Amino acid sequence: MLVVFGIIAIALVLFITEWLPIDVTAILIMVLLMVLGADGVVNATEISTAEGTSGFSSSATITVLAMLILSSGISQTGVVQILGRKMAAFAGDDLDKQLLATIGISGPISGFINNTPVVAILVPVVSDIAHKGKTSPSKLLIPLSYASMFGGMLTLIGTSTNILASDVSARLSTEYPELHQFSMFEFTKLGIVVLVVGSIYLMTIGHRLLPERVPVEEDYVQEYAIEEYLTEVVVDEDSPIVGTTVADAIDHVEFDADILQVVRDDEEFIEPIAQKTIREGDLLRLRADRDTVQQFVDRGTLTLAGNPRTDEELEPDEVADRTLVEIVVPRGSFLVGESLETSTFRQRYDATVLAFRSRGETVRDHMEERRIRVGDTLLVQAAPNSIDRLSQNDDFIVAHEPEEPDYRTEKIPHAAAIMAGVVGFVAVPWGTVGATLAGLTGVGAFEALSALSLPILVTALAGVVAMVATGVLKPTEIYDAVEWDVIFLLAGIIPLGIALEQTGGADLLGSLVATTGTYLPALGVLWVFYLATGLITGVISNNASVVLMLPVAVQTADQIGANPFAFVLAVTFAASTAFLTPVGYQTNLFVYGPGGYKFTDFVRVGAPLQLLLSIVTVLGINFFWGL
Fold first, then answer.
1. What is the pLDDT of residue 610?
2. Domain architecture of the chain: domains with CATH
3. Model confidence, pTM
4. What are the φ and ψ backbone dihedral angles of 494, each rounded to 5 degrees?
């Protein structure tokens, strides 16, 4: 038990500090459990090799994998983006309408498509709504993320956390008969209550607590305050960079600056300019700090010409107006853990990073060595074709919609029918249908329907096959659609939950928490579990918090004589609605940079919401399921 607690402590430290990517941390946990559980080594964790790798064969892991692919298929048709454009047309420049449209689209959709890709798709749509409606994106992007969390609790498939909680509940049902695997609409009635209450909060109180971190109508140069880092210089006759290419000047000559543009004889050249030869008299637009520029001037090799102060000065008139864009780095991107210096970003996309936001900090100088993290937002200058390539790559979320998106709109009916089948075949009560038809017709064959029971795992995998067969997805796209870090995270932490149960760790923690039952009623203990799960999820993965908290919650319910299923639902809802920090839930990371938020903004808006929904959810569980 102590060994398992030690592994949990290591996991918590690594999840919070992000010294290792979360999926690598999960695999480390799995390896430690198996090594320390092997016969002849320590045999301290009660985990065999088969149990240690059981996360890969878990129905939860495979179901999440299939749902990610299905969500990708839906996004390829452009149906969410089309709804987003209708949302923009409705919203106009009225903030209340913009909030209503943002919440009204992202919430319900997230009940049937995994909420993480929904937010990834809608970030550029909502950013454009804010821009066109003369509203700060800061007022809309946190509501977008929070609303997607509300929507994720409408159905079993709204979020991977629900699927994992259902799997854990089914595993624990062998010891606790009150538990069972969730049905498709098991908690929809409570999910609707949470969606309505949360939406009212965001519409009335939440947006008023949000500051305008990104000023209305302010361009990127001013927004990122990079004017002093953008400089125009003229190349002197004896400059050491005369006759070299731009790439050589940056990489091989003592020239610690990024060359953004070359202006020669009133002609402006932007990316790709790496192989452009620099000549005497060329005007170079640089990204460099003042000290670096002053060194060039003092050497007498460059002459200071001025500073671009707006987007327009950085964007030639003859080039499309999308040369400056923000891109968000999601989990799984090749940039995560890399620096701009070690990555191949510039070479691969002919793009220059002018500045970036990381965990609320705007980085403008010495960027090359900074490690890029999930949720960082890069301000990029690139040619329009490079921006198009960035938009089509799952390694990035471009925070503006492309002018001519390439969607498979003709496949919308196919994708809708497939998703309806995936949900419908799980949701239909076949036993009741079979008995009713047999009673009405007298045909006994209909009673065979009573034995028909299709789990979500089967229908989701069938849906993947149907997506490929109908051309909604290309065969090679199914691999790109999977967020492999999520899959490895699930596979790594599922054995940790098993170890917590088998070593008696869950029993011990449950007994300790159950002592609060001496002072609190069962409803109070349930509320404590909701708050504790919400706090834990704020610093570690929501999936990890479910695995750790569910066995303890069930043990506590057993100790105080309460309904274990009520405690399972409280933990599930709390883990899927992590509002307090930007790092507890991936959708919060997606909006962190584009909204210009600080860490405290999530606390300011999320803490009252977390408290409000803790009361609503706990009372709702007691009303619908009882304690």
1. 92
2. 230-288 (3.30.70.1450), 323-382 (3.30.70.1450), 409-471 (no CATH)
3. 0.79
4. -60, -45
